[in-house]
Amino acid sequence: MKRIGILTSGGDAPGMNAAIRAVVRKAIYHGIEVYGIYNGYNGLINGKIEKLEVGSVGDIIHRGGTMLHSARCEEFKTREGQQKGIEQLKKHQIEALVVIGGDGSYQGAKALTMQGFPCVGVPGTIDNDIPGTDFTIGFDTALNTVLDAIDKIRDTASSHERTFIIEVMGRDAGDIALWSGLAGGAETILIPEENYDMNEIADRLRSGNDRGKKHSIIIVAEGVKSGNEFAKELKEATNYDTRVSVLGHIQRGGSPTASDRVLASRLGAKAVELLIEGKGGRAVGIQNNQLVDYDIVEILGTPHKVNIDMYQLSKELSI
Ligand code: ADP
After folding, report:
1. Which atom of ligand 1 is nearest to the CA of 171?
2. Which residue's CA is the closest to the ligand 1 atom numbered 19?
3. Residue nearest to atom 26 of ligand 1 (CA)
4. Tens digits of residue pLDDT in 135-187
5. How far apart are the C-alpha atoms of 109 and 132, rounded to whole Å?
6. Domains of the chain and any CATH numbers
């Protein structure tokens, strides 16, 4: 292995830069050249490819976003688009590719692998929805951003004795909602993996009120429904007025936490190790704090699971 490529694709996530840095430096340490592909699969098709040196990835470990930029690319979902990508890789004599991104980006890596071009996937998404890894790069930072918002909203909820509904990201996964809700002491957490019972939520709010509790925090994962829709439903069921906060894209930005930087560094380096061993068509992850790798084709058929014990615990702690 003499030359590898690297790209970031799909939604950006804090810690992607730390992963890029790790891939570039680990590869150069082992005498391998690294080419950065800008704007995800779009840049791959259009040949936006440049050599990266040790210094190219200096001063980025603490920055959110991705220095390689990201883009969506519909054309790459077609065989012709993928062939154009492979031609560009061959033109630059790139022998293998590291793809940092989420589920959609893994689909692209899988398509290349199935056409004989070796790829390794590195899980980079705030949603924590990639099967085969306990955590994805960016999740911890997003979680802490949400937690900070919950704490601040709790102050005003408490002063004004109000119920707040906070809508958080996560696409079809409830991890951001569940973890931030548990950490923030939310009274109710709605995740797409579990149905909710409006009567139970109403009872919980009323019994809290009867105990003298005058404010509540309800976390709604975007995969369930919008915070505003839920506020309307709650009003119809209970006549309670609420305030809704939609946290939006602030959840994707910011300087990565120590935990995300360390995770990104470990996973990025592991991806290069696999390529040095001649193993393509893999995805890296972390399970029980051990680095693991698995078949990228097989893993994409496995659904992501939320931690149901934690969900149950959140209910027991918010009686
Ligand atoms: P994420 O990686 O965050 O899940 P997307 O789902 O938007 O983000 O996917 C990112 C990009 O990956 C898409 O714009 C597209 O270029 C590529 N991609 C997604 N699905 C496929 C697929 N089935 N085959 C090939 N490429 C895909």
Report:
1. 4
2. 104
3. 108
4. 999 999 999 999 999 999 999 888 888 899 999 999 999 999 999 999 999 99
5. 16
6. 3-138+256-299 (3.40.50.450), 140-253 (3.40.50.460)
